[in-house]
Predict the structure.
Amino acid sequence: MNIPEDRRYTKTHEWAKLEDGLVVVGISDFAQESLGDVVFVETPEVGREVAAGEAVAVIESVKTASDVYAPVSGKVAAVNEALADEPELVNGDPYNAGWLFKIEPADPAELESLLSPEDYARVLEEEA
Amino acid sequence: MDFTPHTPEDVREMLAELGLEELRELFADLPEALLEPELSLPEPASEQEILAHLRELAAKNSPADRAFLGGGPRPHFVPSLVPALAQRGEFLTAYTPYQPEVSQGVLQAVFEYQTMIAELTGLDVSNASLYDGAAALAEGVLLALRQTRRMGVVVSQGVHPEYRQVLATYLHAVGAELRTVDLEGGLTPPAAFAGDVGAVVLQSPNFLGAIENPAPWVEAAHASGALVVYVADPLSLALLKPPGEWGADIAVGDGQSLGNPMNFGGPHFGYIAVREKLMRQLPGRLVSQTHDVDGRRGYVLALAAREQHIRRAKAKSNITTNAQLTALMGAMHLAALGPRGLAELAAATVARSHELAGRLTAIFGVELATPEPFFAEFAVRLPLPAKRVRSALAARGWHAATPVPAEYGENLALFAATERHSEADLAGLATALEEVLS
Amino acid sequence: MNRDFPTLFERSRAGRRGVRPPRPPEADLAALLGADNLRGAPPRLPELDELAVVRHYTNLSRRQVGVDTNFYPLGSCTMKYNPRAGEAAAALFAELHPYQDPDTAQGALQIIYELQEYLAEITGMDAVTLQPAAGAHGELTGMLLIRAYHESRGEGEQRRVVLVPDSAHGSNPATASMAGYQVREVPSGPDGEVDLEALRAALGPEVAAIMLTNPNTLGLFERKILELIDAAHEQGVQLYYDGANLNAIMGWARPGDMGFDVVHLNLHKTFSTPHGGGGPGSGPVGAKAHLAPFLPVPTVRLEGDRYVLDYDRPQTIGRMRSFYGNFGVMVRAYVYIRMLGASGLKRASAMAVLNANYLRKKLAAVGYRIPYDRLCKHEFVAQPPEGLKALDVAKALLDYGYHPPTVYFPLIVKEALMIEPTETESKETLDEYVEAMAEIARRGLEDPEWIAHTPYTTPVRRLDEVAANRKPVLRWRPEEET
């Protein structure tokens, strides 16, 4: 299972990475694998205020719809427009081109309380 | 007579397989206190007996196949092939097409229906059907509120009062606010909409039969960020400018005028059609074209992630069973008539209803209360309460004069005529009404 | 050569005429309707001759299965035989207008009245409305009754939560949301029934109602139902009964006697009215006396010897549907209940439960796993032998001429096959089905490649649902427009 070292994770299988002052958010390789072929992504509105742990996006496959939770609080600064035409990016490249949205964090320190790659790996082991 | 095939031998063998001796043992897991209540119901009847009984009950009704009653449902001509095809066991007894490989019949028929509704309404996408026009209106308004994230709704009094009642019930449930704008002179006056209004609703032809000009409401709604929900009788769309061309975002209505008998109010079907950008907000089932592993074209239910069985509490709607067969009857009706046949049927309806209006208003004391132009229905003001007139006409063998609720005015009655009425029918009704009023 | 089955639009030819209405009288439409109101271009509907239409739909029907053609054991759908007597009866009442003088529709009103009475008797409830158009519609109606009741007692603001078992049908939480409630799930215990302790813990002053199905979606009778209901009532919580599974207990037990406050029924399941490919159905709601004041209007009342439409219900929740409900569907259910009588309904349920248990036993014997292997009611949940997927077993069944059972529901069982044979199936049908299931399991384990690509013999094979969901094509378009 692919768990890049350069970012943090949540128990609900999101990843979060600080880039140019914004927190970029996506879902992990494990998550995209479990969902199957992604057919549609409902992204939040740019400008929306979100709280850590709030459900802010939905990823749909043919037979499921899964909530995506904001890992940190702040304001939605950008969403990945490419997903409208190519939702499969979430499956093919979950850690780069398949990013979902970016949050302008209210408190960048919140990132520290998220799971490290090792902790996330342990979460996955326990789920298995 | 219970349609079970089991012989006593079968029952014995099957119970033995389970290590049981009596049927009662199959219910051993029920609390004793509940078991085997005495149900007081009429004795069982054979098919022959029950049909005879029903014919007796039917004889207590006066058939309305040439009714002149306004208010929505109307007796229209339905080609014989429609019920014949709809009664085929494969359509009649099929379940929802969840296994597409063996459900291409229903799925393709629904795909064709969706296309026809989109064409009639001038919009982009239709769903597979909803329960009736009233539920379709409620769902259409809820869709607009979801999309705009607002909680205010403004509806014209021109929308059928029963539809407005159903809308009120649904909106109260989710805490949305409903405001009604009264008709003026039988038409919807211009209005302005506040920033909390997510949906504005009007109907054309309206409840009194008048053809509205939706343009002012469409403009005002879009200027303030609200969506327009347009209620339309689909038969009228054969001749009249459709909701899509007027700029509406969502069109809804009842399909009884297409291929379905009146059935004492139901079942009919409700339709909903929307602009492309609202597609994923649609409630209910949607059929999409696709291909199979061998490259053959086929159809499947799509975007199920909107629906209750997947999205559960966050579904767009709780709707599961809709009105599939009656909607397919509508499609068969359209296929049988074609665009020219449909236009002719609608034109005949318009001609007859206008002729009727002329004959009735020639009677002393009867005034047209619907501003022209109107389509298939019109209201008149009578010198007596409409209920009394309806009753007196019924005693003379005529179904006419639907009482209009007092909110629209006093002693108003709705009339309609269709292609099924002959000259003699119109003359006969006029004579009867004259007698009743004299 | 293109072997795709054409759409009506592809069969269309400009100028073809089908059925003609009577020739319209001369009329200047622009003058009568207003020139600005007329359509610019006519709708692009297909132009076909009558035979083409008949052939098209007849051949479409031959690409479709129904109860009439195949064994259709879909769990929780009750795919029993749809008596043709019902169709004949409904035709006698087709040409009635809902607004005709009620004195000229006494026969129709009598049917509504009597059906209200019969359903109240069968369910043990005090008052019935026939207005809702489907089960989910009935669910919404029932939940709004409960809400109105709490509001009338000044507890509307306080009670904002509805409890739903984790095995519940998706329409339950969806309905609760539409009724303005928040949904909280209650776990099922290891025995597949609602965990009584967990339920007690979840109850509280903020809970308005619990929505239950009994037997539940695993086909198991909730043996602690009386305790569950008492626990709820003690806290002022109302009990909602999802009647989708009523076919298991007609004449054997009544939800009203169990203590439920409100019930919905599916006439198109339990009471044999046809499914029609997805409706129209009918979802009557029965209520106990304390909820009756809130019922939708109108109902039908008997005044002396006249049937009247009763709008006199000041606390009504309002209307759920235009007119009186799906009257045509009511007629079919009326016929069914009158033909069966109390003894027939009781026997129908008994045979439904007998068939389900028989099938459960036989399938277990050929290798299917039964997670809750005890006496079930009208349906049960099975899992394929280890190593096989429910989806593949379902697709293989299509080649054997069976409609598959419900798959992947309820959510609490992996690779679930929910099987409901109904009472109108014979022992031989069940035996043959078991043979087919056995063969599928055998072949599937021996030859995974084979089963992964079933079906082979249906009009189309496995369809690309991913493409349909990524880029939906929801209407036909002429070539030039695509």
Remarks:
- The longest strand of chain B covers residues 197-203.
